[in-house]
Amino acid sequence: MPEVLAYATDDKNAKFYRTTITRREPGPTEIYFEIKYAGICHSDIHTARGEWGRTIYPLVPGHEIVGIVTEVGDQVTKFKVGDKVGVGCFVDSCGECEQCVSGHEQFCTARPGTIMTYDSIGRDGEPTYGGYSQGITVEQDYVIKIPDEIPFEKAAPLLCAGITLYSPLKHWGAGPGKKVAIIGMGGLGHVGVQIAAKMGAEVVVISQTMSKKDDGLRFGASDYYAWSNPDRLKELRGSLDLMVSTVAATADLDALLKLLKPGGVLVDVGLPEHASTLRLSSLTSGNKVLAGSQIGGIAETQEALDFCAAHGVAPQVELISGDQITDAYDKVVGSQVRYRYVIDTATF
User: Fold this and answer.
1) How far apart are CA 104 and CA 114, in angstroms?
2) What sign has the CA pseudo-torsion 44, 45, 51, 55?
3) How many CA atoms within 13 Å lie on the side-chain side of 138?
4) Rounded to whole angstroms, how far apart are CA atoms 74 and 120?
5) CB 228 within 8 A of CB 207
6) pLDDT tens-digit profile of 39-96?
7) Domains observed in the chain
8) For residue 328, what pLDDT band results from cuts at 50, 70 and 90?
9) DSSP states of 125-150 as a string?
10) Cis ω on the peptide bond leading into residue 112 (within 30° of 0)?
11) Other beta carbons less than 10 A from residue 218's beta carbon
């Protein structure tokens, strides 16, 4: 059983240290790949800091993972040694329930449900460890092929940030003739602007300030608005077909819903820590929709990466070493990264 270097934390203080973890030898339908890059997602931070409830420590986070296949089981048909592959937010599910069969493995209803890439208990009864490590063993059905057109060091965030924005934009019809707002211009939002623009929609950004306006326009937005200028924000009232909120802060839902056209949709993917409230009349006045979206299934995730490859969509990343992870967490929370930290595991 291979031992690999990894970075872990033992408690909610989220101080990371270098260690070793053991990966299982690949079974008949599993592959083992050497991890090259792992993105830092805000979900990693929430989990490591115990902000979403129970966390299994020691924790090795990371669900934006890309690497090179080095071993395959004798019944593997989807991948071969040398392939560039990735793993997203989950590594297993029952494969047989209604949700799994329909391509929504992230909503598996059979016990124990979807097995997440980290902070879960796998079929072997052991805790799952994520991508802040130099290797991982995964069932072939939960692995994504990384297109050559995507720069390898930029591919990792698409396994979470990419699919998280692609799925609701596609589901709710972003495209020609539609006006779409992306709320927040961080690790998720800057990918969402690119995807929505490449889908053919007119895209605007709503951010806290105007500090990232030039970036937003470069990524494909036609205009940029800030909460700090509410008078100008009123220009958007009744004009938007779709809004996707990527922010983790609690939003004024009533104010946001006023920006939608009748029949418009507000989708949240940001998972605010605290509860939000709204007046139901904000929905009934105009037949508006408040929705949520959570990543995507395996087939849709592959579709998202293929779309990004075909349209030149890639996150803007900053490469960091393993010993910079703790500091990077503080910088992500402080909005000091443009736009996604990616760990180079060669630095371990």
Assistant:
1) 10
2) positive
3) 35
4) 27
5) no
6) 999 999 999 999 888 899 999 999 999 999 999 999 999 999 999 999 999 999 999 9
7) 3-159+315-347 (3.90.180.10), 161-292 (3.40.50.720)
8) very high
9) SSBP--SSBSEEEEEGGG-EEPPTTS
10) yes
11) 13
Among the residues of the chain, which ranges form H helices?
Answer: 42-48, 98-101, 152-155, 161-171, 189-198, 213-219, 230-233, 253-257, 281-284, 298-311, 325-333
CB 87 within 8 A of CB 131: yes
Surface-to-core class of residue 191, CB atoms within 10 Å of its CB (0-12 exposed, 13-18 middle, 19+ buried): buried
96-123 pLDDT per residue, tens: 999 999 999 999 999 889 999 999 999 8
| 329: DSSP letter | H
Closest to 142 in 3D by CA, of 87, 80, 103: 87
At 311 the three-state DSSP class reads helix
Is residue 126 classed exposed, middle or buried when 0-12, 13-18 and 19+ CB atoms within 10 A define those classes?
exposed
pTM of the predicted structure, to 2 decimals: 0.94
- Give the separation between CA 78 and CA 222, rounded to whole angstroms: 41
Question: Measured between alpha carbons, how far is 124 from 77 in angstroms, rounded to an integer?
Answer: 23
Determine the residue type at 221.
A
Distance of CA 302 to the CA centre of its chain: 13
Length of the chain: 348
